[in-house]
Amino acid sequence: MSGTTRTPGGARDILRLAVPALPVLAAEPLYLLVDTAVVGRLGAVPLAGLAVAGVLFAQVTTQLTFLSYGTTARASRFYGAGRRSAAVTEGMQATWLAVAVGLLVIGLGQLVAEPVTRALAGSGEIADGAANWLRIALFGAPMVLITLAGNGWMRGVQDTVRPMRYVIAGNALSAVLCPFLVHGAGDWDGWGLEGSAVANVIAQTVSASFFLWALAVERRRAPASDPIRLAPDTAVLRAQATMGRDLVIRSLGFQACFLSATAVAARFGAGAVAAHQIVLQLWVFQALVLDAVAIAAQALVGSALGAARTAADTVRARAVAARVTRYGLLLGCVFAVVFAALYPVLPGVFTTDALVLATIPAAWWFFTALQPIAGVVFALDGVLLGAGDAAFLRTTTLLAALGGFLPLIWLSLVFGWGLVGIWTGLAAFMLIRLVAVGWRTYSGRWAVPGAVRA
């Protein structure tokens, strides 16, 4: 025996939670990536229909990620307090909420699928294909939301390995079914574009079934003295919905900014919008990696605060916050060096168009320079989400959007600043958020001890 002890919330714990979380975060983009590769062989019109419908479906799932993040924040506190049954009960209630919201999404989606796709794609074959795909895909919405809720409570009890397996199983099934259902086999010609939507729904149902099975196992194993409540609990559902409201509003702020940025970039011509899209997709990629660290921070901070009884006991949560901030900064610096070094070759992987390649530098160096800032901001987002400080994050995100990103986006259109103006707006957005979350974390006001944040 060496006599050394491992620090709770140290590097090993962060990696243990963050690494399996990364494939889960990449799951939805991977669904669409497989669909794109398979449907692309049908021709330009079906692929365009998938692009329109896929964006719309992604908006639904993006806005409802509170079922993961909000549930983790609440479940992790109970887990830290030694109340595993209460933590899993949060997952049970989040699952009821997922089913209710999912059924609502199906109903409303069927009503608006055609007018919304026509608004985006115009009339004709593209809009018709998009509407048909979306109507089928919407039946998978409750399954996607059950999966989000399942990820939430399982992260809360610091289990990110089983969710990874469940989601990978669904992705693998979709990858196998999609080519068969789209293109057929033998004398059967397949279902075309609609086949990819059917493959996704089947795969999403399988993943959701695994999470429901995990809940059933937890309920069966729970001690009789501390059972997991199956029936809907209005008080818990109300608390989850309140946090969900704040996180949805925050997410809408992000969407308004990035959709506006793309719309304005398009006004500067095909070269500008294509260059913006390439760099933006790289931003989304690095955000997935940084979000994995933030998820680890959520689970560890929530658990540490749940175990605390007084303000003096929150020292472990503060230590986790400091540690993940350093890791986020280090990871951001590594990304900055890597993307700077890859500048001569990486843009050429995405395009050979001379105009696009000539335009990319206007966004590339902003993107590269922002990496360390993003590393810290995303890490501290995870800390504050783990602490249940969703209202603060909602307000400061909206202030950063309204006071930094959106004004500069639209001023760049008025004054012809192009991508330089757009990415200056993103830089202002990130700097305002850095100051806000940095001040909040330093103040310690987020470190509220106890199993449930008031």
UniProtKB/TrEMBL annotation:
Q: Which NCBIfam families match?
A: matE (TIGR00797)
Q: What's the protein here called?
A: DNA-damage-inducible protein F
Keyword ATP-binding carried by entry: no
MF terms (GO), sorted A to Z = antiporter activity; xenobiotic transmembrane transporter activity
Q: How is this protein situated with respect to the membrane?
A: Multi-pass membrane protein
Which keywords does the record carry?
Cell membrane, Membrane, Transmembrane, Transmembrane helix, Transport
Protein's UniProt keywords contain Transmembrane helix: yes
| Recorded family membership | Belongs to the multi antimicrobial extrusion (MATE) (TC 2.A.66.1) family.
**Localization (cell):** Cell membrane
Gene name tied to this protein: dinF
Can you name the source organism?
Pseudonocardia autotrophica (Amycolata autotrophica)
**One Gene Ontology term, aspect cellular component:** plasma membrane
Transmembrane segments in this chain: where? Answer: 14-34, 46-73, 94-113, 133-154, 166-185, 197-217, 247-270, 282-308, 329-350, 362-384, 391-411, 417-436
- State the source organism's domain of life: Bacteria
